[in-house]
Every structure is written in structure tokens, then in C-alpha cells.
Amino acid sequence: MSAITQSQFAANLKRYYSFYTGGFVAFVIVVGILEQLGVPSKILGYIFLFATIMLYAGIGFMSKTADVGEYYVAGRRVPALFNGMATGADWMSAASFIGMAGTLYLSGYDGLAFVLGWTGGYCLVAILLAPYLRKFGQFTIPDFLGARFGGHLPRFIGVIAAITCSFTYVIAQIYGVGIITSRFTGLEFQVGVFVGLAGILVCSFLGGMKAVTWTQVAQYIILIVAYMIPVVWLSVKHTGIPIPQISAYTSALPKITALETEFNDKATPKGAKEESVRAIFRERSAAATAKLAGLEKDGPAFLAAEKQKLTDKVAALKAEATPDAKAIEAAEKTVKDFPADAAAAKKAWTAEKGVGARAAPVKAHAEAFAVGGKTPEEIEKNRSKAKKNFLALIACLMIGTAALPHILMRYYTTPSVHEARVSVFWGLFFIFLLYFTAPALAILAKYEVYSNLVGSSFASLPAWVSNWSVVDKSLMNIADINKDGIVQLAEIVIGGDLIVLATPEIAGLPYVISGLVAAGGLAAALSTADGLLLTIANAMSHDLYYKMIDPNASTVRRLAVSKGLLLVVALCAAYVTSLKPGDILFLVGAAFSLAASGFFPALVCGVFWKRANYLGAVLGMSAGLGTCAYYMYTTYPFFGVNAPLWWDIAPISAGTFGIPAGFLGVIIGSLISAEPSKEIQELVDHVRYPNLEGDIDTKGI
Q1: Which of 141, 241, 455, 529 has a C-alpha 20 to 30 A away from that of 571?
Q2: What pLDDT is recorded for position 325?
Q3: 411: DSSP letter
Q4: Looking only at Cα atoms, what is the longest distance across the chain?
Q5: CA distance 468 to 497
């Protein structure tokens, strides 16, 4: 494509998306008017969700293609600005939109590891990989591995790594879709997962990367508008300043710190109330610990004795001169809910023992590595552990960013190497807009909860509490533990995945803003899920089927296989998501560790070290991915193995061990075997040096 044609193409895109943005703003205004006219909130939720899904479906339909280059890399003509927007949407998944502000709300300073890791990773992308992969110029990351290291085995391991990390990542996106769909349509979570899946598939099924690219640009516009409006509104409400990044730190954060001090001071009225709740949690935890010890010692006999105590209590209540009907009903329910066997008892009492964590003082939002402990030595040990995990998580997220195949594939779509470099800049800028705002949103939402929900009456709880409790008790649960009728902070359970979606309701904003945020969250989840599913399907259809099984397959058959696999993978991911294997942020973090361990050593050595060869790539990718997956499997509670941690590193940062194993494998394997062929070394020179222009034919390598 000539420079003039490409310039005109870019100008047309700017015009189209300007009209689109204006139309979306008009749509929001119309929905706001409908709310004022009395249209029920549920209907407005349906309008927002299905109107945006139909919009994406329309773009997908208009972008349908049977051309291989269009399907896999959008014809390599996406301008840097728009590729940056598509990369931002592809990147800002449900974890960024839904989970990150929630993690900052719950973890305070410690949650900044996600912000630092994810943004810092783009420096590695720009410096180490993006321009060189664009210079290589094929379709997928396994394509590069197969060409650079020779033979089918490096390509095959690359396919396994791409499927593993992308599948883990896509589960988190579909989980976010399920939460949004179930909250704003009233469907069961498991049903909402499959309904949302239809919206994911329709964008990528017809047009591949071409459809996904132009859909993601549209989705970025929606998600950034949806994210910014409520936080600006909340900032104005509390501080009168429309710049939340300023007001959150200068006004809201000092007030939060003062409230946290008051909550932790038993001498103050609020502190005394909080302590009364914490004492109950300590008692419950201690009682559960004693029961577990008794169960461990005497087994079924202890279980029978405990149940008999409860039965005797019911009889005693009934025998009183003036029986208390409510007390009898509660006691009978306790007997009815008593665990049926030792396994059920162990599970229930272990969960009850865990409430002891809610007896801890309020964690200071602004304090770095705020930890607890019974002695100064224990506190220092816990702080050292927190610092270690903070740095490990940043490293895994940074390196994982530079190794995620669905992100790296975006740089195959630009017209030139220069555009790929500029695209990284624009991508980082568009991501920065949200990431710079997320900490402010967490602070403003926390101030709203601390100042308005805490201290309110259970008799007049806001509607959003019951609305979100219905979706998932782990996301929202408030119980009057000390029976005083007043909400204490220790009585509130708020899941991190709720904060962003519920912020408009928490702040008392019009429902149209809630619908807008839901549409933004859906756009974030759908955009990333599209890219991930396409990565998995392309790895299986292009690298596995076409490159390794049937090199003579026609274009029609290749695209048919890709679409069929896309559907199968999507259904499998939706099923796994319905099992709720973990929260959004853990699943995403796990995907980054897997990508960093499986891809980064081989990709970086493949670009910058000519001596890296076939055996090195095989050993490096196998050792890195295997070590990371093994550590995650044996230490993450979902799998039930419960092995001890290595150096106290959390399973989300399993890449801490996988990345060094990957580099060692590449180095050792390359040094003990013959150096690569002259043809492959020339490929490295072509990729590395800018004076060698053009995309070379790598089919024969």
C-alpha cells in the first residue's frame, strides 16, 4: 500500500471513529433521559449490554474476510494510533478495568505492584521485542520460534505455551463477563457466562484479527469513557475538584488515614464498636480451631458429641418456662446445618477458623507493606515477606507483559517497523489513562464506604448491598455480628471484583452511569477475550494444523479449522469459568507468570543471541513453562495439593522460578549442541538490524 493510500486510510478511520464516539455519547444521553422518564433499571441494563454487544457484532460482520493476511494480521495496515488503541483495549482486560482498582481498594500500597508491573512491561516490549517481531513479519509467535530455532518441536512447545497462558487469561475475562451479565440482567452466573460468550465469539468469528482490531478500537473508546465518568463525578461530589488524580491524594486519602486510625483505636467510640466485632471473630476462630483439634483426635466420636450438644441445647430452650421462638428456630437451624460427616466438618470448621483474619486491625491504605504480627520479630519477618512478594510480582508482570502472545501479535498488524515502535508509545499512553486513574478510584470508593456505609443502620442499608449480595456472597456480604443494628467496618465483606462495577451505586449516581460502567467492563473483558481466543485458535490452526499437519491445506480449510477451534476453545473456557477457579486478578497474574516463563527467555535469546539454537529453545521453554506450572499447581489452593511455598513466594509469582529455569535451559542447551545454521543466523541479522529492509520469506527456514 502506498504512503498516500495509507495516509488516506488513516484519515478515514479518524473520521469514522469520531462519528462513532459522538453517536455513543448521544446514546448515553438518550438512556439517561429514559431513566428520568421512569424506565425500570433492569430494562436500562439490558439496553446498555445488548446495544453494545450488537454494535461489536455489527463491526465484526462488516469486517468479515476470507483473506489469510486480513484474518491473521489485519492486512498489516493498522496505523500506529489505532493499533495503540486496539492494544490498549486488548491489554486492559477485566483485570485492569474491574480487578485492579478493587485490589488497590483492598491492599492499598501493596496493590501498586500491578500498576508498576503492567506499565513497566511495555518498556521491555518496545526495547526487546515489538520492532524485531514486526521485522520478522509472519503471523504468530510460534511462527517466529519455528523459523528462528528450526524444526517443529520449538513451534509445538510454543503452541502449548500460547494455549496454556492464553486459556488461563481468557477464563478471567469470561468470569468478568459472567459477573456483569448476571448483575445487570438477573441471570444466574453460570448462564451469564455463556450468554456473554456469544458476544465474544461474534466479534472474532467472522473476521479474525481484522474484525478484532476494529472492534477493539471501538471498545477502547467505550471503556475509557465508562471508567473516567464515575471517578470524576465521585471526585467532584467529595472534593469539588474534577481531577480525581489530584483530589484523591490531597483530600480523600488524609481523611481515610484519620478514619483508619480511629477504627483501630479502642478508646474511641468507633474503635470500641470495631473491637466488639473483632472479639467475636477471634472467639469463633478459636472455637473452630478447638473443634478441628478434637476432630483430628477423636474423629466420628467427637463429631457425634458436638451434634448432641446442639440437640440438647434445643431441648433446653424448649423446656424453658417462656420459650423464645426465635432462639429455638436458630438453634434448630444450627442442628440442621451441622456437617454430615468428618470431611464436611473439616471443610466447614476450616472456613470458620479463617474468620480470624477479620479480627485484624484495619490495614492502613497509604502504608507500605502494612503487616501484622504478635512480636516485633514476627512483624519484621512478615514485612520482609511482603516486600519479597511485591518485587517478585512486579518482575513477573513486567516480563509477562513482554511475552504475552496476544499482545505481541498486535505488532504484526502495523504497516512497518517504525509504526510498530510508535504503536507501543500510543498503547502505553492509552493504558496510562486508566492506570493513572485506578488508584484514585480506589481511594474515593474507600472514602465513600468509610464515611457513609460504616456507621449506618442495618435497617436502612442501601439497595446496592442486596443487589450485589444476590450475584455472589463473596463479592458483597454484610452481617450484624454484634447485633447492635449498626454497620461496623469489620462486618463488611467487599470483593475486589465489585468495586469498579458498584462505584456508581455506592456513590448514589444515576443508574445510567451504572449501565455505562457495566458496558465499559464488558468492553474490557470482550476485547481481551477476543484477542486471547484468536491467539489460541490461530496457534492451533496455523501453527499446529497448517505448519505441522497439512501444509497443503487450502485457505478455505485453514480458516474453517480456525473458526471451528475458536468455538471449541470458547466453550471449554466458559465451562471452566463456571467452576469459579479463582478471582480475576489471580488468574491474570498466573497467565503472566506462565507467559514470562514459557516465552520470554526463548524470544529474547532468539533475537539477541545468535548462538541460541534448537536444543536450547526446547530445553528453555520446557523447563520454564514446566517449573512455573508445577509450582503453581502444587501451591495454589484450588488444586488441593497445598505444598509448602518456596522462599515464601506466592503462586501468582511462580514465574520467579520459571524465568531463570527458562534462561538456564536456553543457555545450557545452546552451549552443549551445535550452533544454528548460516541461514538461521542470517535471519537473526535481518530481524536485528534496521538497514536490512523488508520482510523475508521464512517458509523454508
Answers
A1: 141
A2: 81
A3: G
A4: 98
A5: 11
